[in-house]
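Hi, here's the filled form for the chain we discussed.

Project: internal
Contact: R.S.
Residues: 294
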Amino acid sequence: MVTRPPTVRRRRLGVQLRKIREDRGLTLDQAATYLSISKSALGRMENAQVVARVHEVTYILMMYGIEEGDDLRSALVGLATGGRSRDWIRRHKLPGKGPNYGEYVMLEQDSSELFTYHTDLIPGLLQTPEYARAVMASVPSSGLSDIDEGVAYRMARKEALTRPDPLVIKVVLGEAAICQRMGGRPVMIDQLRYLLELMEWPNVHLQVLPFAAPNNPGVDGSFTILDVEAGNFPIVTVDCLRRRVFIEDEEGVAAYRGVQAALCQVTLSASESRERIERTVHDLQHCMTERKSR
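And the returned structure, exactly as it came back:
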């Protein structure tokens, strides 16, 4: 029988429960006796082999002396609760994407802030339907069986940007992302105009990393850092064709935070980035006009 690997939340919750127990000098046997929980049940929670319920986590933390109102307690109960994504995922059918896609989207919906660096692609949360369709059609082996469903799902993800407490998204785009004519000139013109509109939103921050930058701290490739509100933790994701890698350890996240800071030192300013995008729109429109006049 094939078993699904534990989710990011379950792994984090298990690690924290084990750390709290060990900090109190308790063996698994001693903790099980103290908590009146079977050793196997407690061990499965700590090893992320089962889903720990909210009432179980609340009870364990209370018994370990972590009081209500403590930030750690709030974070761990948040991990068990799952956050706003539980309702969101019920309303939107997951398309036939590759492994970990659903988990990423749930983390995205549960985040308060997101930083993403893309070398040659507009990130999904900022895409128009036509641009998204062109992207999906470009990768026939992505695992997506129905492009219409994939586009609809991607557009639904953007609810995070307009909810009452909207997701704050900070983006660094490689200049190639705005220069490649994904889907053709009309599609790209509409996409870039949409970016210009989004840049007026208070929760959308976008800067361009120009070809002329003296160095590129993100030379290893695109990545995303999510500040997950439900559980209060940051996580890095790196995408491949059929796989998404989650980087959870503090050292790994810190390394990508360093890249984020370094990237922001060599990008164009917000106003310069806007001018660069406007110039690209103008150039694309000029090319289309010239072609029609021939």
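Let me know if anything looks off before we file it.
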